[in-house]
Amino acid sequence: MDANLPVLALLGPTASGKTDLALQLARNWPVEIVSVDSGMVYCGMDIGTAKPSLQEQSEVPHHLIDIRDPTDAYSAAQFRHDAAACVAAIHARGRIPLLVGGTMLYFRVLRTALAAMPDADPAIRQALDEEVAAYGLKALYERLCVQDPRTAQRLQPTDRQRIQRALEVLQQTGRPLSYWHTQTPSEELPWHSATFWLGLFPEDRFWLHQRIERRLEQMWQRGFLEEVWQLAQRPDLHEQLPAMRAVGYRQALQHIQGHIDLETMRDRALFATRQLAKRQLTWMRSFAGAQWLDPSVLNTQTLCKELELVLKKAHNI
Is residue 2 included in any domain, yes or no? Predict the structure, then answer.
């Protein structure tokens, strides 16, 4: 890998201005954007994921957007593989990869080696979904407590996705998830040491909460409910799919199905988005080695100038 072609990673909480900053940077630097967002991988989920518009995608090459159907599972391991392929291809074109997003698990697997893990099994997942419907999630959690107590101890009894994944691995391999976490991990990515980590970390929480509220209001105005209604017409889509459990989509689907009224949907979506931002910021605090910029006191143009100065000094480019 050419040392003059680093990998840039821009992370931050939802609604902090990552997309605007990335597009501004792309106007001045030879970058291609790689999405680090677990929602943007899905086709048809545009408004609720704040996906870059088609015009924005035509201005700057974007990758790992619209690569899966909402019925498909997409794991962190798959993302790691796909992101590595994108970075290699972008470097081969003599350009700079700019990894942008807020899915902190995806950033984590780019920074660290990944434990060996079996792929998902759709048949087992469907059977576990049927068990939950018949006996409730509590029954599955109690089974996990017996069969893999170490994993069960670190999971919440309401964490359906992770409980089912742990039981799925047990059924596939006969070994608990805790065993696989001790196996020889994958190698570090070849560009690990050349990655420059940048983060938008707003110190003013009121500023971020206002941005979140404004974004949600724009989503409703742009037709987010209609987007979810279109998805809900598909007989193969249901609320237990990972895609449909995304913040905003889950609440909108509950409203469309008649479980909650419009005001409750909006309140729950706002609360869930704020909680997501809180989790993202908590994870970022433990993120060592990143250059932090505060978008609550700097506008996009100033942020871009600050970012460019840092990059030129760090990489001499």
Answer: no
